[in-house]
What does this fold into?
Amino acid sequence: MAHTNQSEALRLGITIFIFLALLTALEFVVALALNSIPLLVVVALVKAGLVMYYYMHIYKLQQESGGGHDSYEYKTGTNRLGLWLFLLSDSFVFGGLLVSRFNLLGFTRPHLSQVLGLVVTVVLLVSSFFMNRAETQMAHGNKKGFLGNTLVTILLGAGFVIGVVGVEWQLAAAEGIRASSMVDGGIFYMMTGMHAFHVLTGVLFLWIVYRNARKDVYSAEKHWGVEAATVYWHFVDVVWIFFYPALYLIGSVA
Amino acid sequence: MKKFFKSALARGLLWQLVGTLVGGGFVTGIRAVMGLEALGRFGFSEPAWVFGGLIGTLTFLGGSGVVSDWVKWARGIPTHDHHEDPPGWEKFINVSLDHKVIGIQYTLTALIVLGLGGTFALIFRTELAASGLQFLNGSQYNTMVGLHGIVMIVAILLGIAGMMNYLVPLLIGAADMAFPRLNAFSYWITIPAAIWLVSSLFLGGFDTGWTGYPPLSARAPVGMQMFFLAVFVVGWSSILGGLNLLVSVARMRAKGMTSFRLPIFVWASIATSLISLTATQLIGLSFQMVMFQRLFGMGFFDPAKGGNPVLFQHLFWFYSHPAVYVFILPGLGIISELLPVFVRKPLFGYRWVAMSSLGIALVGFLVWAHHMFTSGMNEYLRVPFMYSTLLVAVPTGVKFFSWVATIWGGKIETPTPMLFVLGGVVVFLLGGLSGPPNATVSTDLHLHDTYFIVGHFHDTMFGGFVFPFFAALYYWFPKATGRRMNEFLGKVHFWLMTPSFLVLTLGMMRIGLLGMRRRISDYDAALGFDTTHLVLTVAGFLIFTSVLVFVYNLFRSMKKGEIATGNLWNSRSPEWQVDSPIPAHNYAQPFEVVGEPYDYGLPGSKFVEFAKPKP
It folds into this structure.
């Protein structure tokens, strides 16, 4: 959004982050106090909507891209449509996993560490916040700000993977939730594993973009690579917005 | 031969071998260190085969060079947008970014794979020619049946990808697909997959048929895993191909080509691509889940661990039913595309036909459980799925009305492509009419898993894919090569294949109604099916012979065919308004759409107008 000034765009990012944080807190309290499934679904949908509109800028799909078919702007519009179709396709995998989870486990959930679940969720949410800052700064030609914020995002993303795979998996295994034990273990490792794989590819993608930005490949006008990495990163966050309640909050402990 | 060894294909295959050995060796080493069983019945252990297969697929892609531009981008190195191919035949075994070359690569691969699938069919068809076991044992028979199914599915996916890749950019006036590198990637990834598919034959085979249902698939030999891996990889080709096509149609159309001036084949391709973009993920997921169940003991489909085998069937059919619409919609689009050309009349009800493809695709998402009426799923699901399935007949009926009304009163010409179009209409009608008995719960409980089903879906697959595919090959062969195929041999092909095929499927339906089960290697002689089965086997061989005639015609016409560089069929479509074959990046002068696409026989009407060449 080149027409707004940078501090305005950054302020919008902060406002949205505060909303997301409040909703996450609400979600946690609702789950512990009321255990209302419709309310959890509504909160997740609102969070996903906020991220998709304000962080992933889904409305850009509708923008008329001026210039001829060979212009950078038109090609970016084409690329954007391709990326969103890919995300649509990918969301069928995660949708299939959610369907499997409810088919097999119903409204019970595996016994997992609530504290750790909340911590990794917050880590991923904060990483989305920094990613939004990074993209905004790139769009305003602020390379230094972009590099700093991207690096924070990468570190938080790596922290998320370590939290899930390095800590949570070990804790769950110690609780007796193993891949080869009952099916709740299978579902837990499959869902978190598939998501962690996407986080890893996202981290790799961000690392590539970070390196290229240091080589001055991108500019305020031409930075499709940055936009793509950003949208993908937020998509991974959106997936977790649904996976977190499905694994940690909905239903009663089996 | 020297050109072959230097090609991307040869390099890719070599790297696939290396990658597989390294990946498999790596896992074997780790297992040996951990004190697990390092070697299995087929050299590597099962995890080593799966991991080796995965690495081998990746090294194929790296070795063939299809991802090298992306690697450059990742390293911040810009690449050229326009690639030129060498003039000779070797461009077909090297990485090309030209959609026409990729379309031909897909088509040739499809023909090879079709031949392979047909061979599997002939092998087990010969076994069935008489009651009792002749030369196959039960496990070999099952593997043959399963491979025939899945290999044919892959062949059809390749065939429609070939048609869509070659035709859609030409029809919409684009220089290429929206993402040429992704397009090449979608093609090349099918090669390692095809190899894994065939490798399953040598790794113990699989007993499950192409559906791979657990619990049997959870304990079949290693071949099962290679089958799952192969289908998973082919799925990516389908997903990315669909994505590419949708974006191309959305963003690359010529001036004036509004949605209701798109050729019907483009509409059909949109509908097909919507399904392959989304639903394919679920067959990939379901197969992955079985793979993980086998590798890590996860209990998804194991009732002893709280799993549910019926869940697999839901996930599997959520793709695999819409997939049949992926197979047939492009073919039905070809029929609508060619009929007006050969009857010299406008296509009847253009808008209805355009929307019917989308209608079939959307309703197709809601019918999957009709494959599961006897599976033990919740009974209350049966009736809604019965009605949604019967609803598919409505948009399909729209197409038939359009075809019949288009033919009505036309000046019908019958060169070879038109013969295949008409054959396709008749055969697909048989397939369509034999569908509702399977969709209706009360009759399906009797028909399920009988040869009636086998006859039904072979009619739909031949009418919806094979006949239109051959029609398209005869019709656009001159566009691709500048020569036309031999008419006499084409007619021999048609008149040999069509009656044999009708005998085959009607015979299948007959014995199915009398109680012949599908997917079994033997049957009781007292049932009295021996004669019919013998006739079916002979019919199968005749079909194969007719395809051999086609293959001979194809190769002969490439070199000796009559020169045909102009508008051979007197078509209105833009690709026929320029000389054949079309150069890279397609039209030298852009065209503008100024009228309706199918107004044949209306004097003075125009579809496209080319810009004047710049002096």
Remarks:
- Residues 7-70 of chain B form one domain.
- The mean pLDDT of chain B is 93.
- The first helix of chain B runs from residue 2 to 5.
- Chain B has two domains: 7-70, 96-610.
